[in-house]
């Protein structure tokens, strides 16, 4: 198969979808790999390393798309790429369709096959290609939240871990999944007082067993959230409904209950956000303030630590990408139900319920395209 690795052009996105080690694995199986010049530089990988691994370096993104059958990316295509995507393309990347009708309709119009990292799902309901970036984002949420609590950023001026004689900060984490778990460990490690909320009692029992003593678990409901935000210094939104828009757990009116300088970090922003006042921001302009509450809503948080993120992501995606390259997308998805669940849009048809529901689009049975 002809595999294309374009340079990410989303603002401040420094990750790359395939490492030189990944290129070498594809070449061992006689696949051709075309990498755009400087695609890996942001993650610390030079063009020379890609050449040595067997890739062909192409100077422009247009040439990469023109040559490739399968495009492997990190982030969803943006407007400049829409016209480059053709009906013969298989795109393997994060899409988060439910947060963008424009992107969804553009991919429908392209007649391409869109296989989304975030909805590849194992039998135990875990999301193997979302987990590594969720781990990074959960830890970064605390790192960034601690920074923006500083007074120079209009925060409350609170040190997350406190000092002897001064209470530590109160951190509230909404969602006990991968993001929430890693955020809780990070905040607890810095010495904060942490409350993690979830709607699953079995999950809360599990978290109560594994978390340090400065983490408490609380059932998530509107009453408990409203009470907790009154005394929280840092609030992390870590809710995920695979392939669908995140619910608003914090509404606009709730901001009035918070203390001025409270920091909100909405990790769910790429799925629409679980905070009503959330809107996507970039690493260049990461925050904004509403009602004296700081909002940090960067949609590609792991892009700020690209080496760690790239290696972690490709460790997870490469085995699936190899299956797609070796067998073609149809056979690979027939043989592996995890990949089949990653199919979101095929040849103009929406085949993933969460995406169809988000925009009132007709849902087509994925199996009609696999026969």
UniProtKB/TrEMBL annotation:
Location of the Alanine dehydrogenase/pyridine nucleotide transhydrogenase N-terminal domain: 4-137
EC number in record: 1.4.1.1
Keyword flag Nucleotide-binding: yes
Enzymatic reactions: L-alanine + NAD(+) + H2O = pyruvate + NH4(+) + NADH + H(+)
Active site: 96 (proton donor/acceptor), 270 (proton donor/acceptor)
GO cellular component, one term: plasma membrane
Superkingdom of origin organism: Bacteria
Domain Alanine dehydrogenase/pyridine nucleotide transhydrogenase NAD(H)-binding: 149-297
InterPro entries tied to this protein: Ala_DH, Ala_DH/PNT_CS2, AlaDH/PNT_N, AlaDH/PNT_NAD(H)-bd, NAD(P)-bd_dom_sf
Protein name per UniProt: Alanine dehydrogenase
Species per Swiss-Prot/TrEMBL record: Raineya orbicola
């Amino acid at each position: 198969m002809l595999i294309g690795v374009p340079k990410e052009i989303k603002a401040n996105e420094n990750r790359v979808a395939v490492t030189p080690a990944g290129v070498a694995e594809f070449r061992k199986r006689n696949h051709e790999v075309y990498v755009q010049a400087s695609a890996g530089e942001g993650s610390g990988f030079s063009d020379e390393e890609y050449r040595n691994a067997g890739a062909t370096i192409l100077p422009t993104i247009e040439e990469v798309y023109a040559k490739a059958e399968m495009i492997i990316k990190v982030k969803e295509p943006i407007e400049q790429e829409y016209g480059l995507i053709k009906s013969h393309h298989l795109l393997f990347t994060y899409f988060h369709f439910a947060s963008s009708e424009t992107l969804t309709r553009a991919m429908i119009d392209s007649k391409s096959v869109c296989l989304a990292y975030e909805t590849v799902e194992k039998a135990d309901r875990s999301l193997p290609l979302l987990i590594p970036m969720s781990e990074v984002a959960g830890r970064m949420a605390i790192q960034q939240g601690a920074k923006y609590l500083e007074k120079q950023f209009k925060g409350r001026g609170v040190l997350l871990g406190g000092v002897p004689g001064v209470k530590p900060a109160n951190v509230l984490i909404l969602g006990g999944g991968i993001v929430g778990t890693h955020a809780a460990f990070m905040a607890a490690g810095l010495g904060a007082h942490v409350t993690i909320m979830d709607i699953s009692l079995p999950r809360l029992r599990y978290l109560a067993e594994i978390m340090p003593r400065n983490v408490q678990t609380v059932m998530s409901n509107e009453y408990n959230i409203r009470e907790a935000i009154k005394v929280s210094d840092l609030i992390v939104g870590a809710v995920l409904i695979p392939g669908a828009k995140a619910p608003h757990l914090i509404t606009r009116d709730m901001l009035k209950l918070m203390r001025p300088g409270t920091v909100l970090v909405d990790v769910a922003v790429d799925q629409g956000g679980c905070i009503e006042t959330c809107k996507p921001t970039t690493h260049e302009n990461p925050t904004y303030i509403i009602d004296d509450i700081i909002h940090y809503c960067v949609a590609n948080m792991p892009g700020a630590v690209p080496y760690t993120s790239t290696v972690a992501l490709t460790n997870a995606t490469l085995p699936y990408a190899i299956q797609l390259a070796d067998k073609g997308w149809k056979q690979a998805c027939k043989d592996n139900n995890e990949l089949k669940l990653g199919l979101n849009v095929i040849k103009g048809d929406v085949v993933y319920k969460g995406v169809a529901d988000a925009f009132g689009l007709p849902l087509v049975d994925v199996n009609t395209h696999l026969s």
